[in-house]
Specification:
Number of strands: 15
Distance between the termini: 31 Å
Strand order of the largest sheet: 3-2-1-4-5
Helix content: 25-40%
Order of helices and strands: EHEHEHHEHEHEHEHEEEHEHHEEHEE
Number of domains: 2
Length: 414
């Protein structure tokens, strides 16, 4: 009987732990077929360094509490493994660690990069004579994975942004006569505008201008739209994606520097937009960056999102038990109203390194709002509440004990 390895990857979400809970609880229910579930401390790095957490040493109550706890219970990482050709040693190390700990199942919970890693591990393991069933568990607040209708983590971020946009707009409306007339909220989304689109879910009588990465920023058109709203409503709320770009491809917030992955480092689109409005239209403003708040807000999680995150973790284990390999459980929408969905499997070769952008018919003709089709897509994903338990006025979240497994291999030298 083989053991399993589970790891969390990339930016964490309000519901990634719900997927972890789904994986671990389902594996434990199938104890006759799957042995111990080991979790990587700080994601895939935990496998490379042989820092494995024995989840069987955690209490059943604590594992269950993962479902209502935000962020990565076992630690995540931003670590993109290089190609097999350029760094085969890393992949061989993974197989060595899996072999040393009798691991035959690999569940990687993350976005596009982790799907690619899953694919490569399954391919290399066969060539090395130690087959690994590699199953990718989808997660990304950016909602940019293909095949699946949506990604766990997105629905809760969308709910947070929709609520924040609405509440901040009420605030600005109250003060607009004598003070602030502009509020700018910057949200995540370097390439895809799914999160920004959620700002359009507020009522039609709330003036919101959305800036999408998919739409080139036109300064004149933007300022005209903002000014028109202020003259009509007395104020205007702007939701700007961090990835909003000028027509020449430069990010609004680009600093001219690069991060470790080669991505342009962004200094904040919100202050750029706010100052542009102040300098040209003269309106007083406030701005905010949702940043970690939007993806950590488990207290405001979407019930749909929590349910789907757990179900995909559960499905990943069941797919492995059914003998599937190099696949990802994907959500298939079967109806909009009432919203219904099912889970099917997608091939990792069709998912790895593919980004799903906002469809053109989801963005209004003026480029500053969402269409009815987009609203119908988004609305079910933010539906329902799944509040965590509270203690002394605060959410009662769990912290894993993280009992480490004894190492069997020499240290890994990259």
């Amino acid at each position: 009987m083989k053991n399993a390895f589970y790891a969390q990857s990339g930016g964490v979400t309000a519901v990634i732990n719900a997927s972890a809970c789904g994986v671990i609880e389902t594996a434990q229910k199938n104890a006759s077929k799957i042995g111990t579930v080991y979790a990587g401390q700080n994601g895939i790095i935990g496998a490379l360094t042989e820092n494995l957490i024995d989840t069987s040493k955690e209490s059943k109550a604590d594992i269950k509490a993962l479902k209502h706890t935000p962020s990565g219970g076992f630690g995540s990482c931003r670590y993109k493994m290089k190609s097999l050709e350029s760094n085969r040693a890393e992949y061989e190390r993974l197989i060595e660690v899996f072999k040393a700990h009798n691991i035959g199942y690999f569940f990687y919970n993350g976005g596009g990069d982790s799907a690619d890693t899953c694919l490569k591990v399954s391919q290399l393991s066969e060539s090395m004579g130690y087959p690994i069933q590699a199953i990718h568990v989808p997660k990304t607040v950016d909602n940019d994975l293909p095949i699946t209708d949506n990604c766990p983590g997105f629905g809760s971020v969308a709910k947070y942004i929709a609520v924040s946009t609405m509440e901040a707009s009420f605030d600005v409306a109250s003060m607009a006569a004598t003070s602030t007339k502009i509020f700018v909220l910057e949200v995540m989304g370097r390439h895809a505008g799914w999160i920004a689109a959620a700002g359009g879910l507020v009522a039609d009588n709330i003036p919101v201008v959305i800036l999408f990465p998919e739409v080139d920023f036109n300064q004149e058109k933007f300022l005209t739209a903002v000014d028109k709203n202020v003259k009509k409503f007395g104020y205007c709320t702007i939701v700007v994606s961090e990835g909003t770009k000028w027509a020449d491809g430069r990010f609004l917030a680009e600093q001219g520097t690069r991060d470790d992955f080669g991505h342009a480092q962004l200094g904040g689109a919100a202050p750029v937009v706010a100052n542009l409005i102040k300098d040209t239209l003269g309106y007083k403003y406030h701005w905010a960056v949702a940043d970690y708040l939007q993806r950590a807000a488990r207290h405001l999680a979407s019930k749909t999102d929590v349910s789907q995150a757990y179900a995909l973790g559960e499905a990943a284990v069941n797919m492995a038990l059914a003998g599937k390999n190099s696949v990802m459980p994907a959500i298939i929408r079967t109806a909009n109203n009432p919203y219904t969905w099912k889970i099917e499997s997608g091939e990792l070769k069709d998912i790895a390194n593919v980004e799903k952008m906002m469809p053109a018919n989801y963005i209004s003709k003026d480029g500053f709002g969402i269409t009815k089709a987009c609203r119908e897509y988004l609305q079910p994903l933010i539906a329902g509440e799944d509040y965590p338990p509270y203690k002394n006025g605060l959410p009662d979240y769990v912290v894993m004990k993280k009992h480490m497994v004894e190492k069997k291999l020499p240290p890994f030298e990259a």
